[in-house]
Amino acid sequence: MRVDLFDFDLPDERIALRPAEPRDSARLLVVDPNGGEATLRDYQIRDLPSFLRPGDAVVFNDTKVIPAQLEGIRHRDGAPGQQVSATLHMRAAPDRWKAFAKPGKRIKIGDRIQFGHGENVCILGALDAVVEEKGEGGEITLRFDLSGPALDEAIATVGHIPLPPYIAAKRPEDERDRADYQTIYAREEGAVAAPTAGLHFTRSLFVALDAMGVERHFVTLHVGAGTFLPVKADDTEDHKMHFEIGYVDATTATKLNAVKARGGRIVCVGTTSLRLIESAAGDDGTIKPWHGATGIFITPGYRFKAVDLLMTNFHLPRSTLFMLVSAFAGLDTMRAAYTHAIETGYRFYSYGDGSLLYRKD
After folding, report:
1. Pairwise CA distance, residues 357 & 308, whole Å
2. What's the whole-number average pLDDT of the chain?
3. How far is CA 208 from each of CA 5, 49, 211, rounded to the nearest angstrom?
4. Any idea what the Cα angle at residue 29 is, between residues 28 and 34, rounded to 5°?
5. Boundaries of CATH 2.40.10.240 in the chain?
6. DSSP-derived secondary structure letter, 14
7. What's the confidence (pLDDT) of residue 104?
8. What is the largest CA-CA distance in the chain?
9. Is the pTM of this model over 0.85?
10. Which residues lie below 8 Å from residue 26, measured CB to CB, with a gap of 6+?
11. Are strands 112-115 and 69-76 parallel, antiparallel or unpaired?
12. Domain 69-160, CATH 2.40.10.240 — does that match?
């Protein structure tokens, strides 16, 4: 499909720079492409339980954001040091991370980068890495001098929360983001971007879901920085997705299959949990235990195998995420939904409002 089919104009003031307080007071646009004249309805996140039924299952991504934005100095054969930035996006080994680097063109294989220069450093004095591989679009593979838990501790010491570029361009990261840019149920460290639909959930909303008899289940997909990359191709067939590591354990797969078998619905919170469940599902809709790297690219025409409803934020134009929601609820429906959201003051992107989408029949 042509990528420009997924373009739209977003006024700059619609980009949210902070989340709603409390989190579940954010707005919720309910989008039902099968609902006739009642396709679009305006609510708040705390109204979510009224759209669910006893026996439904809500699936959350419990990945935890790490401070994966690193600033350092590149050193090469006696040449003057150069300031570089690296955003880690996928772990390749206990001592290796794939990262997006700036300025990427000036970095070469074999360069040594000292991170934490001029600021807090780890207990060994600095966090050093060697550029082991170089790919396209500024992607590099860094081999660190530390490994495993020691490397994790060092990254936590010298790193910064990697705010999305559309927020970072307007204000610097601060201490508040360490809490704001994390779900209340975050557990498995490894993401460099938050599963942002989950940012809306509060303890009181969990209590309301439990009281209804709605099940809560957790899967893990470590969101990578590739989620922020624009689609530069003119046709979706020419776009290359970046891979992300995730897993669905056997217990969760069994329980979700039981939900479907008794007529309950699977409600994914965020496109990340949806992509993972669809990666783990067979053609018959059966969800199997799954572990690995997924690069699933969902565009209109995709046949969804397991997910019935999707709760998600409002996404960037020409993005893979807007393509995904258009596949789920229909392109014409989602274009109308985004037009309504813009005209009625919904807040967009990571810290913005949310939507609840019914799958198009």
Report:
1. 9
2. 92
3. 39, 7, 5
4. 140
5. 69-160
6. G
7. 81
8. 69
9. yes
10. 19, 20, 44, 45, 200, 347, 352, 353, 354
11. antiparallel
12. yes
Cα distances (angstroms) measured from residue 160 to each of 74, 263, 293, 297: 18, 44, 25, 29
Q: With beta carbons less than 8 A apart as the criterion, state whether 127 and 147 touch.
A: no
Torsion angles phi and psi, residue 115, rounded to 5: -90, 155
Between 206 and 240, residue with greater pLDDT: 206
Dist CA 299 CA 320 (whole Å): 8
> Which of the two residues, 36 and 313, has the higher pLDDT score?
313
pLDDT for the residue 117: 60
| pLDDT digit string, tens, across residues 263-297 | 999 999 999 999 999 999 999 999 999 999 999 99
Dist CA 253 CA 285 (whole Å): 11
Q: In 10 A of CB 346, how many CB atoms?
A: 23
CATH of domain 3-65+179-358: 3.40.1780.10
| Preceding omega of 317 cis (within 30 degrees of 0) | no
Q: Give me the residue label for tokens 């969800």.
A: 287
Task: Phi first, then psi: give them for residue 324, nearest 5 degrees.
Answer: -65, -50
Element (H, E) at 88: strand 79-93
Instruction: Report pLDDT digits (tens) over 80-112.
Output: 788 999 999 889 999 999 999 988 888 999 999
For residue 221 the two structure tokens come to: 């997909």
Residues of the chain with CATH 3.40.1780.10: 3-65+179-358
81: CB partners within 8 A, 6+ apart:
73, 74, 75
